[in-house]
Amino acid sequence: MAGSTLPKVIKNFNLILNGTGFAGKVDEVTLPTLSIKADEHRAGGLDTSVQIDLGMEKLEIKGKVHEHHPVFFQLFGLQNGNAVGGVFRAAKADDSVVEPYIITFRGAFKELPKEVIKAGEKTPLNFSVHLRYYKLEMNGATSGRPIRSVGPRPMTALRASLRSPSMTMTS
C-alpha cells in the first residue's frame, strides 16, 4: 500500500522555552493566524479597486502547561522583544508514517493570566507570546519564505538602501 488512508495525528508534543524542557507538561498550543494586512486602493484609470499588501497582521501564540515554572515569570515583562525563545516539537503520525512538526518562535510574553490553584488538582498555566519571529516546519517544508519576516530587519535593510550613494542627491 502506497500510503495510509488514515489522517495523521499529532503525537509526542513537547515545549522547550529558553532552554528549559517541558516534556509531558504541555497540554495545548494555539498557533497564530497567518493573515495579510491589506488596504483597498483605486487609482485613476482603474476599473475596480485592488488590495495593496501592507504586510502581515500581528502574530500571537498561546499555550497551556501544567507546571508553574519560574522561567515563565523570569521572562515576563523583559524589555527585549525577543526575550522569549521557544520550540514546540511534535510528530504527525498515522499507522505507517511519522513526520516531524516543529514550531520555532521568538517574542515577548503578553500575558500570564492569574490561575485558580487548588490542592490535589492539576493547575494549568496559560500564556501568550507576541511574536517577532515564527516558523512552522512540517516534514521538512517551511511555512513562509524569508521575504515575509516579522521584526525590525526588513526596515533596517530598507533604511540602508535609502542611504546608499546611488540615492544621494548632490548639488
List the helices and strands and how they pair.
Blueprint: E1 9-17, E2 20-21, E3 26-30, E4 36-41, E5 50-56, E6 60-65, H1 70-75, E7 84-93, E8 98-111, E9 125-138, E10 141-142, H2 153-162
Antiparallel strand pairs: 1-2, 1-7, 3-6, 4-5, 6-9, 7-8, 8-9, 9-10
Written account of the structure:
The model is unreliable at 164-171 (pLDDT under 50). With 171 residues, this protein is mainly beta. It contains 2 helices and 10 strands, in the order E-E-E-E-E-E-H-E-E-E-E-H.
Multimeric organization: single chain
Compute the number of structural domains. 1
Kindly name the structural category: mainly beta
Q: In CATH terms, what is the fold-level topology?
A: Pnp Oxidase, Chain A
Strand residue percentage:
35-45%
Listing every helix as H and every strand as E from the N terminus to the C terminus, the arrangement reads: EEEEEEHEEEEH
**Name of the CATH architecture:** Roll
- How many strands in all? 10
Q: Number of DSSP helices?
A: 2
Summarize the structure.
This protein is mainly β. The protein has two helices and ten strands. The chain has a single domain, classed as Pnp Oxidase, Chain A.
Task: Jot down its keywords.
single chain, 171 residues, mainly beta, Pnp Oxidase, Chain A, two-stranded antiparallel sheet, 44% strand, globular, disordered C terminus
